[in-house]
């Protein structure tokens, strides 16, 4: 009898330790495991500049903490083009903060964050941009991210952030196939065109319209005006047409 009790106790312990290592499951439902799954994948890429003087300094901040709280990114690219990875791609890095794009909140949960070593006031080096393009090719191909969904931190958090700065070469990056850029020859803007609706369609959060305009201008016009500029309607109409021409996302 005592032997049976001991066996029961050992079995209990085994069950408890097995439970301790099992993934959390909702007790409200019966668990019927399916092998048909994979880690969640990112759906967009957010570019940042570090606003620091060196990649070494940025690495330290991204691995520890700073005065504003803990931050991280999946990748950091040095001025010399060297790439560092800090967080696995299927994990949620803390780079975008409070953010919204195309109606989606919590951009951290659906994005890969790439920090560029840059103090915010200087041009981005050729080596760094070339290195970024290699990484963008790899990420969009391997993770199935739609290439036009490469945006800046300032785009997804227009009231709080302004990185990457006006020095970031969005046109060059778009010519390589990543992010949107207006075409040379644009169709005439039809009567009744709604520029605000187009700005929202591109992805901008319009809760603070002036901040959204500044972010749009930083990205597409290399300046940060907070009111409409001549030529904006033509540019936005072309971006809207490009978005409407895109194949829809697919994948199981
Ligand atoms: Zn940022």
UniProtKB/TrEMBL annotation:
InterPro entries: Amidase/PGRP_sf, Amidase_domain, NAMLAA_amidase_2, PGRP_domain_met/bac
Catalytic reaction(s) noted: Hydrolyzes the link between N-acetylmuramoyl residues and L-amino acid residues in certain cell-wall glycopeptides
Domain Peptidoglycan recognition protein family intervals: 23-157
N-terminal signal peptide: 1-22
Cited PROSITE patterns: PROKAR_LIPOPROTEIN
Entry annotated with the keyword Transcription regulation: no
Keywords from the named record: Cell wall biogenesis/degradation, Hydrolase, Signal
Record's keyword annotation contains Hydrolase: yes
EC category name: hydrolase
Domain N-acetylmuramoyl-L-alanine amidase: 30-165
Ranges that cross the membrane: none
EC number: 3.5.1.28
Classification via Pfam families: Amidase_2 (PF01510)
Protein name from the UniProt record: N-acetylmuramoyl-L-alanine amidase
Organism of this sequence: Novilysobacter avium
Lineage per the UniProt record: Bacteria, Pseudomonadati, Pseudomonadota, Gammaproteobacteria, Lysobacterales
